[in-house]
Amino acid sequence: MADISSNFLGIQSPNPFWLASAPPTDKAYNVERAFEAGWGGVVWKTLGEAGPPVVNVNGPRYGAIHGPDRRLLGLNNIELITDRDLEVNLKEIIEVKKRWPDRAMIVSLMVPCEEHCWKNILERVNDTGADGIELNFGCPHGMSERGMGSAVGQVPEYIQMVTEWCKQYSNLPVIVKLTPNITDVRYPARAAKAGGADAVSLINTINSIVSVDLDNFAPEPTIDGKGSHGGYCGPAVKPIAMNMVAEIARDAETKGLPISGIGGISTWRDAAEFIALGCGTVQVCTAAMTYGFKIVEEMIDGLSDWMDEKGYRTIGEFQGMAVPNVSDWQYLNLNYVTKARIDQDSCIKCGRCHIACEDTSHQAITSIVNGERMFEVIDEECVGCNLCVNVCPVDGCITMEQIAGVDPRTQEPIDPDYANWTTHPNNPMAAKEAAE
Amino acid sequence: MASEVMRDVKAGRLEQSEYAENFSDIHPPLNAHEAAVEADRCYFCYDAPCMTACPTSIDVPMFIRQIAADNAKGAAKTIFEQNILGGMCARVCPTETLCEEACVREVAEGKPVKIGQLQRYATDVLMREASEHPFERAPSTGKRIAVVGAGPAGLSCAHRLAMHGHDVTVLEAREKGGGLSEYGIAAYKSVNDFAQEELQFILDIGGITIETGKKLGADFNLADLTGKYDAVFLGIGLANVNALGVAGEDADGCEDAVDYIAGLRQAADLSTLPIGRRVVVIGGGMTAIDIATQAKRLGAEEVTIAYRRGQDGMNASAYEQEVAQTSGVTIRHWLQPKAVVQDDAGAVAGIELEYTSQANGTLSGTGETTTIAADQIFKAIGQSFDDHPLAGSGLDMDRGRIRTGDDRKTNLANVWAGGDCVRSGEDLTVVSVEDGKIAAESIHATLTA
Description:
The complex is a heterodimer of chains A (about 425) and B (about 450).
Chain A: E1 6-8, E2 11-13, E3 17-19, H1 28-37, E4 41-47, E5 62-66, E6 72-77, H2 86-99, E7 104-109, H3 115-126, E8 132-136, H4 150-153, H5 156-169, E9 174-177, H6 186-194, E10 199-202, E11 206-208, E12 211-213, E13 218-220, E14 230-233, H7 238-250, E15 259-262, H8 268-276, E16 279-284, H9 286-291, H10 295-310, E17 338-342, H11 352-360, E18 368-369, E19 372-373, H12 387-391, E20 398-402, E21 406-407, E22 412-413
Parallel strand pairs in A: 3-4, 3-16, 4-7, 7-8, 8-9, 9-10, 10-15, 15-16
Antiparallel strand pairs in A: 1-2, 5-6, 6-14, 11-14, 12-13, 17-20, 18-19, 21-22
Chain B: E1 9-10, H1 16-22, H2 32-39, H3 49-53, H4 60-68, H5 72-82, H6 86-92, H7 99-102, H8 104-109, H9 115-129, E2 144-148, H10 152-163, E3 167-172, H11 180-183, H12 194-203, E4 208-212, H13 222-228, E5 231-234, E6 240-241, E7 254-256, H14 257-266, E8 275-276, E9 278-282, H15 286-297, E10 302-306, H16 318-326, E11 330-332, E12 335-342, E13 348-359, E14 362-373, E15 376-379, E16 383-384, E17 397-398, E18 401-402, E19 415-417, H17 429-447
Parallel strand pairs in B: 2-3, 2-5, 3-4, 5-19, 7-15, 9-10, 9-15, 10-11
Antiparallel strand pairs in B: 1-8, 6-16, 12-13, 13-14, 17-18
Helix pairs in contact in B: 2-4, 4-5, 4-9, 5-9, 6-9, 10-17, 14-15, 15-16
């Protein structure tokens, strides 16, 4: 049986599934329930500086978008960092870590961008027995208005500066949590690395308004007639998160920097995809907030079973395996020609492939053949775009197949050799030899 | 043959609460949550097979998408645009042989989207919550049209004509409008006086006057109408009930199913309806199913449907057969009536049936017989067109019904016909609605040409 234990920055956990810093990790009660359920670790909900705790709104804190059957696809929140007393949090962290020594205990931190503030909080956290700290440079709402959270994460120089302080005042591994609310995630990641960060974690939530109440004309969640942008998370953000993870994993300057992946991870497969893109652990929040902690059982079994099936004995054996295959568009093989193929036995004749292609693409799928309702690909028109595959409600009914010989669409022979845009005759900047 | 058991036909076999339960809505309506969950299952197919399967061509994917997008009233309007009796059709259509049979999820999973239930949800919401009729009348044309028969065909035609700005007078022989919706549909399919509610909803468009108790051939003739109105639509249904053609048919207790159902539908108190302890129904269509199921639900102990062909020969769908069977009705096949057995008083004591077999498409009796003891027999072997009220009118007939073209126009100038009295398709409410609609459009085109 596969060994799914994780060693991230020297922090051991029985599995790579950590709960992200968020409401599920705000207090001992929740965290211990999570450990009982099997979670490998937690990032304790962000602590602020000593003194009167922050306050939260007393109206609704969350908004959501739903898919069919009200499946929660995206969640948005305007909750701030922990609103519990620092002393209570620290005491509970100590106790919980003592009781659960085999689980990863990371403490998330956010204090003002002043050296003494970081020094003070780190002195307290260093004594808790925690395994590491995560710097919350990500929250896009509320705290950012006070110069913290994403307000720091959006300025690479600040990231580097604070990271340096943390390395100076703590011996604990430092994980810098990045905000996606930037234009190019590689810059903050590079800054974190330059500051001495042991790892980055990403993504934090995305600035968002999830819905507008059309009776009151106010964003939701609505607090007394007003709404504020909140942080967006859940399955809907996974593609954005994975791209950012991949960008850091393959960037020459940050290559090899450990990554804890976050963003819409809901199943073992999501986790495996993040790990394949280079992550050493993954952090989960929305899925737990939607279904409770028990989902980790599916994640543990699923990952383990898949690894057994594939013959991977440890997570390290497939970690980062997809990174070399993340490429730039210009290097994609333009001689790789595919056509859609519709399996008539599994086709249920809904016609969505036809209308999608007919209305919005290349008029490459029939609706009637010999007077019968039938959906077949017209190879002469098919550009291999994959839209039909994506809109088909039956998994596996439509597939893309590579063809060789002459492309019926262009009437041109297909060159069996790799060739990309860098040498394409239509490219005014074309080089003579294909770059790889 | 003298019966040894006393004939037992009586009213009040059940407690009031049992009648209420037995005749409550057979498919309780979906609530908003159930409708949302079900609407999410629709794939919004291209050139949707469900829409093609609907005789009135309701844009099913669109109305379901409207429900999913929290616009149930818009959904209802989409339905009513094609079928103003969409509420009744949602209750009585054999969806399992129409839209739901065609649903791609029937192909994929054997579980079609519950189109009928969703249609009922949307139409119920609009009829319950809308402050006004969903359609506006066009400016008055000054044209006057007579519609004979206030059943589904006539009402559909009247509504469409009124919408186009014509003034419509509907002449109805019975006391109430609604036709089979009011008098023929099984009670548990149309509860809470829905037929009358729907009738009022249709009339709310304005421009339609109903005159009840006016019978064609008795109170007026077709020629009276053609002289007075710009156009006439005949939606007069099938007035005759087919006879068994066997000895003893007139015995006390041998009744026409449609008459009994009409009485049941009009009964203020179901406990006043006499029903036999042992009931035999002859027939294999929807009426046979409806009378058998309702007889059982009125407290009959044994109800047997005897049908002369096999199961797949029955006009009633497999689903409807199941409804009867799960209500406790026994369905027997390959039996045709030979004679009604009478007791000393000449009343029904049972029925003698002859076994049948089919060879090369021809059905014949085997000569072997069996007798089922019965206190009551219901004849449900079909209805036929009664042409007497139209005697001398000059209307062409087609296999015993009124002949029309595709536009439902008869051979007579300015006379159209539709519904069960013509041969346009299956004898279904939804087909009648379509006939009325087609005829109305044809009348409108003719009068405004």
